[in-house]
Specification:
Blueprint lengths: L1 E5 L3 H12 L3 E5 L3 H8 L10 H10 L3 E4 L11 E4 L14 H13 L4 E5 L7 H16 L5 E5 L9 H6 L4 E4 L3 H11 L9 E4 L1 H32 L3 H9 L20 H14 L5 H13 L2 H9 L8 E5 L14 H11 L3 E5 L4 H8 L4 E2 L3 H4 L5 E4 L11 H7 L4 E4 L6 H6 L3 E3 L3
Helix pairs in contact: 1-3, 4-5, 8-10, 8-11, 10-11
């Protein structure tokens, strides 16, 4: 099959490369000509394990192509995916300007039956507006070309996106068209050989499924962070609580880990967008409002623990930060808890030394030279009065306490992801704080 994917951000690029890997002929479209040139040379602008190798392999196999406009390729494709960004606006709503522009470009250039599929995360009702825009463009051309609009939300986890795409636990497609259903079934058939996992719904339900899924996962995280903070007050251990409730089949084990807050490009903005959608329809998402509030508070918890440990006297303290990205296996720092912690430390006149295996360049783009960028984890701890573990990269899991003792000024660890053993850390001479 021949398909086009508009938008070469995280979702669009991973989707395009994976479709090509399964044998589809894919053209990735982006108006950023510099990005397109880099991709043509096999240079990936984002970090995702295995993506660059797969991209280069499919370029060489001539299954993966790149263009700067939809008009360049639309005559040869059966499906156009819209995978452009929908960043949050100040009021929490999703900025759909790029989605509308894809719809206009589609309407200006489509000449025969083509399926337009929205992969971006968009509010309920967006598909109808897309259809209206395309019809307006066709009317302006004096043309009557058949087309369909469908929804196919993505469920990729950064750091494991290729695995998620190639072996999905479900593929959701929103459409009322039999022809669109046939086309999407054929496209995804190679991904379903181990079992049918396609879920067909109406379009509005598909649009809602994406927001509901992310909101549920975010709710579990904030709930456990609330429980963790209560555990500290009453003397319980949140790790034991997690194991106890996770063993209940009705609850399950996933997304029950307490920590210093969630970030990324999905959960925070999707929660705000759903809250905004509810307000537009005269109702409130009171649980999600609490989820967001708890998460915003949780991002400050390591800073609050530092303040308490030093009785508020932290000016000129040197703080080492291990981990900057919002999660391991990505360089993405959007809404990262590390940014909140670092800003609080800088406002308190602390010196901040940072290290992350991948996200150092991303951090420099955001913070400039306001922090000290270090060569490795022990360099970051050099002369530190405190060490804060924020992102649980694998290389942080087994530190040498002997080396840390030799380089740190004071042996204090704030574990924002509960990855260290409390007794071991204390036996090694460290004052150790965890979440819950």
């Amino acid at each position: 099959m021949n398909i086009a994917i508009v938008g070469t951000g995280y979702v669009g690029l991973v989707s395009g490369v994976c479709f090509a890997e399964m044998g589809a002929d894919v053209t990735c479209v982006d108006i950023n000509s510099q990005k397109i040139r880099q991709l043509q040379e096999g240079i990936v602008p984002i970090y995702e394990p295995g993506l660059e190798e797969m991209l280069r392999r499919n370029i060489e196999a001539e299954r993966l192509h790149f263009a700067t406009s939809l008009e360049e390729c639309i005559d040869s494709v059966q499906i156009v995916f819209s995978a452009v960004g929908t960043p949050p606006m100040e009021d929490g709503s999703a900025d759909l300007s790029q989605v509308w522009e894809v719809a206009r470009a589609f309407g200006r250039s489509v000449k025969r039956y083509t399926l337009l599929v929205t992969k971006s995360t968009v509010p309920v009702g967006t598909a109808e507006k897309i259809r209206h825009i395309v019809e307006q463009e066709l009317s302006a051309r004096g043309e009557n070309v058949e087309f369909e609009v469908a929804s196919n939300p993505e469920f990729l986890k950064e750091g494991a996106a290729i695995k998620d795409f190639m072996a999905p636990d479900r593929v959701v497609v929103g459409t009322t068209s039999d022809e669109a259903r046939k086309i999407m079934s054929r496209l995804y058939k190679p991904f379903m050989l181990s079992g049918e996992r396609m879920i067909f719904t109406d379009v509005r339900s598909a649009e809602m499924i994406k927001y509901a899924a992310n909101s549920m996962l975010a709710t579990r995280i904030s709930f456990m962070n609330d429980i963790a903070n209560l555990c500290e007050k009453v003397g319980a251990d949140v790790n034991m609580v997690r194991k106890g409730i996770g063993a209940d089949n009705r609850i399950g084990k996933k997304f029950l880990y307490a920590g210093c807050g969630f970030g990324g490009s999905c959960f925070p903005k999707d929660i705000r967008a759903l809250i905004h959608t509810a307000k537009q329809h005269g109702c409130r998402m009171e649980v999600l409002e609490a989820v967001e509030r708890v998460n915003n508070q949780q991002k400050r918890i390591l800073f609050e623990k530092l303040l308490t440990h030093y009785n508020g006297d932290i000016a000129s303290k040197v703080v080492a930060i291990w981990g900057l990205s919002f999660k391991p296996e990505t360089d993405d720092m959007r809404e990262a808890p590390s940014l909140v912690v670092i800003e609080e430390l800088l406002k308190a006149c602390c010196q901040v030394r940072v290290y992350d295996p991948i996200a150092m360049d991303s951090c420099r783009e955001i913070l400039g030279e306001r922090v000290t960028y270090c060569n490795d984890k022990y360099d970051a701890a050099l002369g530190a009065d405190a060490l804060m573990l924020i992102t649980e990269w694998k290389e942080f899991r087994m530190p040498s306490y002997a080396v840390l003792r030799s380089v740190m000024r004071e042996c204090v660890i704030f574990d924002g992801r509960n990855i260290y053993d409390k007794e071991e850390a204390r036996e090694q001479g460290f004052t150790y704080y965890k979440i819950g």
